Amino acid sequence: MWDAILAFARDYGLFFAKTVTVLLAILVVLGRLGALVRGARETAARLHVRRLDRRLRHLARAIDARLLGKKAWKALAKADEAAEAAATKLRDAGDRKRLYVLDFAGDIRASQVDDLRQEVTAILGARRAGDRVLLRLESPGGVVHGYGLAASQLQRLRDAGVELVVAVDKIAASGGYLMAAVANRIVAAPFALVGSIGVVAQMPNLHKLLKKHDVDIELLTAGKYKRTLTVFGENTPEGRAQFQRDLDQTHQLFQAVIARHRPDVALDEVADGRVWYGSQAKEIGLIDELGTSDDLLVQASADHDVVQVRWRGRPALGARLQAWTAATAGAAFGRVLDLLWARQVQGPR
């Protein structure tokens, strides 16, 4: 009889545990779905703002905390508190200047321009008289329309009267330099690569290979220059000439931006596609100063709120649901394997 009671208790306990597990799983799923829906609506959370001047001060104080005696450390901490109180008073009165810090690490498609446009819009809405912007730029260039739009976003700051400084620690070439040229001031590290004021385009042509295998390609256009060079068809001298004229026109537009913002640059000498190191670029007027973005941050932190502004768009709700479902399914499968393994090791009771 006792065996029957124990068996019933064991079976009932297992049934109860399974029921509770299912209910908890349902509650977790509903909770996660609710969080995803709420997150999709909270667009303000996409803008991340961080005080870099505090971070720089904390870095320095980390060394002082190790090396200074107790008395000297307390005195330094007291001085920091007084300085922060004075800065807070200026900040509350609107007299504390800000240096907004943006980062642009460009790829060939200039895909970061969507983040940049949001960041610029946010700054233009919050900026006060005397505020400045520092753009830490790193890009070897890429598509004309993408980098043209990125330069136009920076031009919005200039048109609003906001001083813009571009810092190039590694490279700002081609479309990257097109962006940098918009700035009031360009600061580059001595070995940073700068320039490449030129335009390039290339494509393979498979016409001879296709012709060898008796493959014809029919290309129909409406408009004499709708298609100048093709991958599969036979390119003509007239088409090549028009394609070259298109490149030359783009190059002229590029040079016009440089001439507008850096009128002292001798374009006849530098607009040939070459790149220069920072120290060389200063001599020919492509940049204004030698230095790093770190130098600029440390200098500004003495009397500015140094604020990093970053826009990070949330993935679409469908993509987030898909990623969460995959992760949840993987975790559940792993849990099942764990239970099966445990049962195999322990054996039936």
Explain how this protein is built:
- The chain is α/β, with parallel strands linked by helices and 349 residues long.
- It has 3 domains: 1-41; 47-196 and 274-311, 2-enoyl-CoA Hydratase, Chain A, domain 1, CATH 3.90.226; 199-264, no CATH class.
- The chain has 12 helices and 9 strands.
- Strands 1, 2, 3, 4, 5, 6, 7, 8 and 9 form a 9-stranded mixed beta sheet that branches.
- β3 (132-139), α5 and β4 (163-173) form a beta-alpha-beta unit.
- α2 (52-67) crosses α11 and α4 packs parallel to α5.
- The protein is flat and about 80 Å long.
Rounded mean pLDDT is 82
**Ends apart, CA distance between termini:** 17 Å
- How do the SSEs run, as a string of H and E? HEHHEHEHEHEEHHHEHEHEH
When the domains are counted, the total is 3
The CATH topology of the largest domain is 2-enoyl-CoA Hydratase, Chain A, domain 1
CATH superfamily of the largest domain: 2-enoyl-CoA Hydratase, Chain A, domain 1
Structural class estimated from helices and strands:
alpha/beta
Percent helix: 55-70%
Main beta-sheet annotation: 9 strands, mixed
CATH architecture of the largest domain: Alpha-Beta Complex
Oligomeric description of these chains: single chain
